Amino acid sequence: MVVTLYQFKPLYGLPNPSPFCMKLETYLRLSGIAHRVETITGRIKSPTGKAPFIEVDGKVMSDSGLIINHLEATHGHPVDGKLTLAERAQSLAFQRMMEEHLYWVMVYKRWIDPTDKAAQRQYLKDLLGLPSFLVPLIAIAAARGIKKGMNAHGIGRHAPDVIWRMGIADVQALAHFLGNRTWGFGDAPTTFDACLAATIGNILHTPWTNPLTVATAKHGSLVAHFERLMARCFPELAK
Ligand SMILES: N[C@@H](CCC(=O)N[C@@H](CS)C(=O)NCC(=O)O)C(=O)O
Hints:
The protein has helices at 19-31, 64-74, 85-112, 117-128, 135-153, 160-178, 191-204, 211-217, 220-233, and strands spanning 3-7, 35-39, 53-56, 59-62. The chain is of the alpha+beta class and 239 residues long.
């Protein structure tokens, strides 16, 4: 059964401006599972209201991690099957760090603290294809929603320089873990690599810079890992 992946459109040379969508599309390409992609326009019609989501066997499923678990289980573990239990534990822990902690620093940068508001508005326009007059209103609404989420999480209650330091520490931990290895585990990319490249790509490939982008760009091994994964999975976009 062909999987239909619903996600945002590619932007700024990245397969997706959402790290969750990019991770899942990368997983699908690594797995060889037959799939097609539909671009989301307008409201996200998934059970959680979030992207990405898939339709498979007549069922609609949300959450990139749950979707990958389901596809691994139903397709004979094509991507993470060779990992030991300890490696699975490490992979999950790092993915949680990227998606539940570093992600918030990334969105802080994107929606709340862009150094260049004009670039942010252009980004929003490109991302959602909005008419110009709506962009400032949507930018304010998006920032308000992200602020609320970051406050509930707790990270948003810190001063900006502390938020940057927290994100930079996560990136450094990822660089230390990867070391000079080609992939996170063994000789083939796994879901960890999909998540890592989606995270690093999404930190670096936006139209503005800030302490997180500057610190991340200095980690040559992470930049090279992103480029390696792009060449392998998205040759049509790789430099
Ligand atoms: N845990 C979810 C997170 C998905 C998520 O937060 N997606 C964002 C885009 S990066 C989204 O759809 N945001 C829209 C919203 O919150 O209304 C996953 O792994 O799929």
